[in-house]
Amino acid sequence: QTLGITVIDTNAEALLLNAVVDVGSSASIDTYAELTNLASIVNRLSIIAAGGTVSPALTAQDFEALGITGVTAENLSAVIAAIAGTADDGSGINAMAKLQNVANEGIANARAASQAIISTYTGTNTAPTLADYRNAAVSGVTSSNIAAINSLIGELSEAATDSQVEVQAVI
Q1: Does the pLDDT of residue 43 top 60, yes or no?
Q2: Please, are residues 121 and 162 in contact by the beta-carbon 8 Å criterion?
Q3: Model-level pTM?
């Protein structure tokens, strides 16, 4: 409040913002605008944890600005869902380690969901997307070759495509 950052109005938000500032580089917080941007991100995380919706929506870049790793455009919705599943008072995300752990849970959920889409693809049901392959950590899939790859995946059994290693071997 002393700095005029009024969006930080709970103890959980203050704890997380302090943690972000503690681990951030001095170049990332050397202006008031940068500090208020970080405060806005922390506030939006708190709103999501409490079950609310935010505007503007959080982005993978917002998580990167906080120092949270692994969040991508492809797994962002799963990370947001994991945050929404934490305690409404923000206590589940009030420290960097807690927030990273929740993000990791969302990333793992996205990976598992995408791997399930890939492994259950038969050629006639919902086809895996580029995002699914990225979430499953499968490299080499592009918009130019995804149709051919999906054709190959669709011919294989679920047991032959239920891990990243197996799918990567097809690519």
Answers
A1: yes
A2: no
A3: 0.86
